[in-house]
## 1
Amino acid sequence: MRKILRVAKREYRTSVRTKGFIIALILMPVMMGGSALAMFLFRGQVDTRDKKIVVLDHSGQVADVIMQAAEARNEAEVIDKETGKKVKPAYIIERVEPDVDDPLAHRLALSDRIRRGELHAFLEIGPNVVHPEKDWETAKIAYYAKNAAIDTIRGWMNGTINNHLRRVRLSDVGVQPQQANEILTWLEIAPLGLVSVDEAGQIKEAQRSSEAEAVGVPLILFFLLFMMIMMGAMPQLQSVMEEKNQRIAEVLLGSLKPFEFMAGKVLGGLAVSLTAASVYVAGGIFLLRRLGLAAFIPYQIIPWFFAFLVLAIIMFGSILAALGATCNDAKDAQNLTFPAMIPVFIPMFLLMPVLQEPASSFATALSLFPPFTPMLMLLRISAPAGIPLWQPWVGLIGVILFALLSIWAGGRVFRVAILMQGMPPKLSNILRWAVRG
C-alpha cells in the first residue's frame, strides 16, 4: 500500500504543481459554460442600426397596424430613458402596394433591394388572413430576409399581426373591443411546488418553483462531474502510454508490481479530481452565499456528488490506464481514446430526456446501468421532482461492483500489456487478457 501511495503522490504532485493545472482549473468551467457566459456578457451588444421593412398587404387590414405598433415600439424601447443611448434598432415600416400582375418579379425586385442593403426584409400578407378557413392558400403570411428563420423581427411581427387578427375576427362576430381585450387576456400559469407541513404541524403554502433550481443546479452538478472525469480519468491513457513508450514503466516495475503501478496512477488522478472538485464546490457555495442565494445550495446532493465522483474516476481510470498499457505510440492512444470515453459521452446525449422525466422507466433503467450511473443518477437526484431513495443506493452498489470489476480486469490487462512492445492494441487481445490474464 505504501508503494501505491508513493506513485499516487508522484502523479498528484506532477499534475497539481504546474501552471497548466491552475490554467485548466480556471478555464474549464469557462469553456463548459462559455455559451451561457458569452450570452450574459454580450447581452447588450446588439445591432442598433435601423431596420427598414417593406409590407405588401393584399388584405388591406394589417399594414397600418404594423406601422402603428412599430412607432409605439420605437418610442418606448429604442432609446434608454436613463442614459439617452440607443439600445435597440428602430423598425421603419414602408407600405408598398403589391404588384398583382407579376408578383414574382415584384418579390425579386424587393429581394435585390435586400441584397444591396437598402432593406432589411419584406413582408407579404395574403388577402384572406382574417378568415383563413375560406382559402388557406391565400391566407399565408411570408417574411423574406437573409436570415428569416431566426430573425427577431419576424417573431415581433408574428405576435403583432396575430393579436390584431384575433380582435378583427371577434369584432366580425359582434364582440366589442373592450370585451375582445378581456377575452384575449393572457394569464401565466405559476409554477409551484407542493404544499407541505412544517415541524410544528402547520400547513405551509407551496413555494414558487425556480428555473435555476429545476434546471440550473442539476446541469451544474452534471457538467461538473463530467469535467472532473475528463480531468482525472481521461489523462490516464495518454500518461501510461507515454511512460511505457519512454521506458519509464520498465524502471518503475523493477520495484513495483504492475497492479501497484496502475493503482497508484489511478489514485493520483482521483486526488487531482477531488482537489479541483473541492475548489469548485467550495467556491460555488461561497459565491451563492455572498449573493444571497444560499437556498439554491444543494447540501444534501454534495455527498452523492463526491461518492459518484470517486467511483467514476476509479472505474474509468482503471479502464483507461489498462488501455494505455496496450498502446505503443500516440497514434494507438488516439484510436482508443474516443471508444473508451463513449460511456462518458452517452449520458450527455440523454441529458434532457432524463432531466425532463427523472422518474420515468427509461431514466431509471439507464441510470442503473453502471457506466452511466454516476452522471445520470446524480442528475436524477438533483432534479426537484426527486426519485425513490432506494434507487441511488442500488445505483451506488452497482457502480461499486462495476468499479471492482474494472480494477480486476484492468489490472490483468495492465500486467500483460505494460511491458509488451510492438503489438498494436486489438479488442480480441484486450478481452482475452482481461479474462485469462
## 2
Amino acid sequence: MARHNLSTVIGFEFGRNLSKPRFWIITLVVPIALMVVFVLVLLSNRSTSATADAQKNAHISFSYLDQSGVIDDSLASRLGGTPTTDAAAAIAAVKAGTSQAFFDYPADPAKQPVKVYGQDKDIFSNGIYSSVAQALLQSSAQQKLDSPQLVQLASGGANSVTVTYRDGQKTAGFNGLIAPILYLVAFYLLIILLGNQMLASTLEEKENRVTEMILTTINPTSLILGKIISLFALGLVQIAVFALPLVVAYTLFRTQLNIPTLDLSHLALDPQQMLVGALILIGGFALFTGTLVAIGAIMPTAKDAGPIFGVLMILIFIPFYIVTLVVSDPTAPIVEFFSWFPYSAPVTALLRNAFGSLPLWQGLALGAELLILAAIVLRVAVQLFRYGSISYGSRVSVRNALARRRGEGSTAAR
C-alpha cells in the first residue's frame, strides 16, 4: 500500500469531520444565532418605527412659557400649545390632571435645559413630551431663518469629502482598509474555530490506540500534511457558512434592518497589500497549526494539552492591547517586537498591512519567517508524532525524540 497517499488522508479527514454532527452543530450555531438576532432586530425595528410614527403623529395639549423668544406661537398652536405666563400654575395643572403637559423654555435654550412636565403614562410613552418640546423649539428656530440653505446648515446638513496623499500619490483611506482587514478576520476565524480540532487531530488517534496501525500504511509526513490541509478546507467551509446569513440579511432585509448600502465601486484593492496579507495569513495559519499538531504529539491527552492551547490563544489577542500604538506609531519598539515575534506576528503584521504601515520588504520578510518557522515546526511535529504516537500514558520528551532521530540518521549513514 502506498505510504505517501496524501490525497487519501485529506479525503478521509475532510469527509470524516464533515460527517460528524458535532462539526455541523458548532458550525451552524453562529449562523442560526445571527439569523435569530436578525429576525428579532427586524421585528424590533418595525415596532420602534411604529411607535415613533405614533408619537410623531400624536396630538397632545400643552401649555408653554417662552422666555427665549424663539417659539413661534402659530406653530405651537397647531401642535396643541397654549402660551402661559405663570409656570407655577401650569405645573399645578399638570399635577391635578387638568393639563397634559407644560414646557418651560429658558432664556438661552442652547445653554440651559428645557424643563418638561407631563402626566405619567409609561416609561416609553413619556418620551412624547420631550419629543414635542424639542420639535417645537427646532421648528421655531428654523422658521426664523429665511434661507432654506441656512436651515440645512443649521441642522447639520453639510457634507465633506476628504482626499489624502502619501508620497505624492492619492491614498484610498477607509476604502483601502476593508479588503486587507478581511485577512485578519479570516485568521481569527480559522484559529478560533479550528484550534481544538488542530489539537485533537493527533491526540484522537493516540487516545484511541490506533496510531501504530495507521503508521504502518501511511507515511507520518503525509498524515500530518493531510490533516493540516483538510483542516484548512474545513475552515473555509465554516467561513462560507458563517457568511451566508450575512449575505441573506443584506440582500433581502437591508432596508428593514437599516443596513447602509455597500458601494463596492469605491473599494480599493492594493495588489501589494493583498499579496502580503495572503502570505502572512498562510504562514501564520501553518505555524499555529504545526505548533498545535506538535503539542498534540507530545501530550498524552487533550486535558494535558489544554493549558498550552490557552497560552497560544492569548498570544494572538495580545496585539490588540497596543492597537492604538500600531495605528499611530507603527515603528515603536513594542510594535516591532510583536511584529517579529512568531506567535504575535500574524495579527500585528496583518493590522499594520491593513493600515498601510507595513513596508513591502518587511511584509515579505515576515511572511518568509512564518513559512520557514512553520516548515521547521511541522518537521519537528512529524518527528514527535512518529516517536510519540505510541506514548499513551506519559508526555513525550522532545529531546529524546529528536536525539533518536539523529541517532537513526547516523546509523543509516554508516
## 3
Amino acid sequence: MSELHTSYPALLDQIAHVHQQAQVGAAGAVNSHLIIRNWLIGAYLVEYEQKGEDRARYGVQLLQHVAQDLKIRSVNGCSRQMLERMRLFYVAYPQVSKTISSPSVSIFNNPLVYKGLQISCPPVSKTGSPSDRHPSPLPPEMVLKLSWTHLVELLGVDDSWERAFYENECLKGNWSKRQLQRQIGSLLYERTGLSSGKQSLIEHARNQAAQAPTQVADLIRDPYVLEFTGLSERSHYLEKDLEKALLEHLQTFLLELGTGFCFEARQKRITVGNSHDYLDMVFYHRILRCHLLIDLKTRPFEHGDAGQMNFYLNYWKDQMMGEGDGPPVGLLLCTARDQTKVEYSTGGLDHQLFVSRYLVALPDPQKLQQLIETDRVVWEQHHTPDVPISNNEVKP
C-alpha cells in the first residue's frame, strides 16, 4: 500500500466524484453501482484515516465532519452511520475490488487513483479450510447480487463463519431484507449448529422464509436458544429463576419465539374446584389469533408433563377462548427430551402440544464450518446470472 499525501478537501472531492459517477449509471445496474460506490467511499475513508496527514486534526470525529460537508455538497446517503457501514463494508468484502474494472461498473473512471489519493485493498483470504477458521470469500459477482440493505444486515454479523452462512442462505432462498433479519434474529445459525439434522433444518427454514406461517405450529422451534438469560453461569437454577430471567429479557425472548407474539400473562392461575394450578407463561399471536401456553421445566421431559399441559389446553379452550380465537397451542420447554417418550405421551391428544429443548449456551461454531463451505461450492457451481436480490430500497 503506497504512502499517501492528501488533504481533507481531496477526500471530499473524491467521494463526491464517485457519487456523481454512480448516479449516471444505467437504471438496470443501479444496485451494483450503489454497492461499488459505497465500497469505494469506505476505501477512501480507511486509506485517509490510516495515511492521511489531516488525521490528527479530525481524529475520531472524521466521519461526522465528512457527513456534514458532503451534505453541503448535496451528496446523499452519506450520514455518519452510513459512512461507518461503508468503512466496515470495505474491510469485510475486499474482493469487491475485482469488480472495479468490470463492464458492469465501467462508469467509474479509474476510481482507485484520484487527485493523489491512491488506494489498494485489504488482502482477501484465499483459504477455505475449516481448520484455518476463515470461510472462503463470497465471489465478487455474488456480492453484487445482494442489495445494499442485505449487506447492511450482514455487516452486523461479526463472526465471519456466521456471516458466510447467512450469505449462502440469503442467495439460495432469495430472501428479502425482512426475511434475512428474521432468520438472524431467530438464531438460525446457532440452531443449525445444535441440530443433528442440519440440512433438513435449513430446508425447513428456507420454506418458512418463503411463506408466512399459517398456524402457530409453524413457528415452534427446537431447540430454543436462551443464552441471553445468563443462566449458563450457574451450576443450578430453579424454574422460577428461568421464568424471572425470561421476563427480565422479555423483548429478546419475544424475538426468540418469533414474529407476532405478544406477552399476556405469567403464573396464570387455573382454578378447577377448590384446587389451583399455575401456568408459567401465556402469549398471544396477534396475526394467527391464538394463545401459546408455555410450561417451563429445568429438567428433561417426563410423560406426566404432557398430561399436565393437556389439562391446561382443555381448560383454556373451554374457559378462556375469546370470539374469533383459534384453539390454544401448548409448548413444554425442557432441558432435554426423548423423542419416543414424547410421541407416546402426546399421541392421540386432540390439542397441538409440542415439546422443545432449550439451551442456555451456544454451540461450537466448528460444527457448521464444513456445511457452509460445501453449500458455497455447490452454489457457485450451479448459479445462473440473474437480477440482484432487491427490496425496492436501492437509493444512492
